[in-house]
Design a protein that fits this description.
Layout lengths: L6 E4 L17 H10 L3 E4 L17 H16 L3 E5 L4 H5 L1 H19 L6 E4 L10 H16 L7 E3 L21 E7 L3 H4 L20 H21 L3 E6 L7 H17 L3 E4 L9 E2 L4 E2 L1 H8 L4 H5 L3
Parallel strand pairs: 1-2, 1-8, 2-3, 3-4, 4-5, 5-6, 6-7, 7-8
Antiparallel strand pairs: 9-10
The structure holds beta-D-glucopyranose.
Length: about 325
């Protein structure tokens, strides 16, 4: 993944599902849709912590490991890159001291298992570190997690993001380890009262319903945020990956399209890779019921449809 993940999409709410919400079945045909549409990368969020023993040596459930294997293989077989992370390990944010040995043991197992796979697979150490993982604590933890990966896999691209839930404003506090194969990630959901309007897991988000997005001052805010991240990347010699960005289905589609297209175009202009949050559930660019892309979101991400591709399909 020398030049970065390129244009990606998250298969969210599949291997990371918390239960009780919408879920994405990790079906082979969805990998086909993503490859055919022209994406380069699938980010596979994985909730390993819900599928590993609570006591040392913290063995990952073999059946779950095989599900992740299948997702990785489905991406690589289609010429897509895959990004595998540790997702929703909330206890790392609430009680990192107690969970650090387990977190490191997860990475030792994951890295050893996938060490033989091609460079199209990248690892991302932890989704949205925050809470008790303060910037200084996280910097120490991420160095240990990187060492756990490097013990069996010295060459693979590893993605690191700042504490503060991968907010780009937290980049200055991220200590970058000395390692030639790192990428930096940030998540972008600003303005939050637009992207998360109506989101059931955000207290008070119903009050934001009806917030639209567009116009010069909205655009200026996004541009200056992303330029700040790009400047940090240049300063540290690291390529940037906007590993999550998206607007929840509670927002009006015309605003979602404008915001998504603008963030995507700015990321492209600044030479950043990106991955839309997410493929097929509550932010979904793809409508699982109709079995088709939501055209405004597909267009916002990938541009005008390829006429050759269109005519070749029934
Ligand atoms: C979380 C999702 C959430 C999304 C947007 C992700 O990191 O895993 O549950 O929908 O962020 O808030």
């Amino acid at each position: 993944m020398e030049s970065g993940p390129g244009r990606g999409i998250n298969f969210g709410n599949a291997l990371d599902a918390l239960g009780g919400g919408p879920e994405l079945p990790l079906d082979e045909r969805y990998f086909d849709e993503v490859a055919r549409a022209g994406f380069d990368t699938v980010r596979l969020p994985v909730r390993w912590s819900a599928h590993a023993a609570a006591a040392a040596p913290y063995t990952i459930d073999p059946a779950f490991f095989r599900r992740v294997d299948a997702g990785v293989r489905a991406a690589l077989d289609r010429g897509l890159n895959a990004v595998v992370n540790v997702h929703h390990y909330q206890e790392m944010n609430t009680d990192p001291d107690a969970h650090l040995p387990r977190f490191l043991a997860l990475w030792r197992q994951i890295a050893a298992r996938y060490a033989g796979l091609p460079g199209q697979l990248a690892f991302e150490l932890l989704n949205e570190p925050g809470g008790r993982l303060t910037p200084s604590r996280w910097n120490a933890v991420l160095a240990q997690a990187l060492a756990a990966v490097r013990a069996s896999d010295p060459e693979r691209t590893v993605i690191i993001g700042p504490a503060g839930h991968n907010d780009l404003h937290a980049l200055p506090a991220l200590a970058v380890p000395d390692d030639a194969r790192l990428l930096a990630t940030v998540h972008y959901y600003a303005p939050f009262d637009f992207t998360h309007q109506g989101a059931g897991w955000v207290p008070g988000a119903d009050r934001w319903l009806g917030r639209t997005w567009g116009g010069a001052s909205d655009e200026d805010a996004v541009r200056s945020d992303l330029e700040r991240a790009a400047a940090w990347g240049r300063e540290h010699g690291l390529r940037l990956f906007v590993g999550e960005f998206g607007a929840f289905c509670g927002a009006a589609m015309d605003s979602r399209e404008r915001w998504t297209a603008f963030v995507r175009a700015e990321a492209d202009r600044l030479g950043m890779s990106w991955a839309y949050w997410e493929f097929g559930t509550d932010f979904g660019a793809f409508d699982l019921v109709r079995g088709a892309w939501r055209e405004p979101l597909r267009r916002a991400l990938l541009g005008a449809a390829d006429p050759a591709r269109r005519t070749s399909r029934p």
